[in-house]
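Hi C.,

You asked whether I'd gotten around to modeling the 293-residue construct. I have! Everything is below, sequence then structure, no commentary in between.
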Amino acid sequence: MTTERPLPYIGISGVNNLKHNSNPENTGMQYWLMDQFVWAGLDDESHQNQRQLLLGVKAVHKTQYLDVENKYGREWYPVGADEFESSLDSGGIEALRTAQIYFDADHVADADYRNEFIKRICSRGYKWLNALQFDLLPWHDNDTLLPFLEEVKQTTGHTIILQAHGESMQKLTPDGTIRKLGRYAQFLDYVLFDASHGKGLKLDTHSLLPFLDAAYGSTELANVGFGVAGGLSADIVQDELPKLLEKHGDISWDAEGRLHKQCEDGTYEFDWAAAKEYLQASDAILKNSTREV
């Protein structure tokens, strides 16, 4: 069946150009990642498995509302307006330049707060922002949240990525998840299935496949892209993703936690070698995939 789904992506989350002295090539993170993506051949327009790059910048209450550093450190979570604005820019190859938004439990039900936070993030990221990802949003329990995302789409025009996290997946089941999301398909660009509930646990293909099967079988979601996340690294990409690609060849995927390593002071820094290996592994499995999409 022919669909008009958006181009699938390979994501790297927790991107920030603030600090890059550990980069062996001494270039900014954004352009280094873009170079790695191109060198791996992942943007080849002639290839049936072409992907786009997603660069994700973290945006949470503490670092982008209170404007103070959190326990993970500034390299992973930029702090304040200046750092967020400089996390990316609009240059380089076409990519999804994404604010990855998480609302604390104390604030998620406050409509005024949500709207103010979105306005703040869009203002701070205006130079580069073209996508908004909503992580761990309790849309399965709060019936105001999917209409809220619809308003965000209409107001901003940005690409909308919604995480279907472990709790929502467990409570709604595959069919229930897809029925609920199908009612709001007109504003969803991607749904990212993460059975680890955002904890970075190893990708569980057995748990994810029923959700992907239901998603791809939905006529309401025929123009929505689907992705997977959860503890991805080069090894797990190589070992686990082919099981999903064999059946659903146009899935997207995203890695974050295993592309950061802990420093002596307890904060985290970007692992350049792990990111390069992750992109190379992604290229390798796509080249080995022969399924037409």
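If it helps when you're writing up: The first strand starts at residue 9 and ends at 13.

Thanks,
B.
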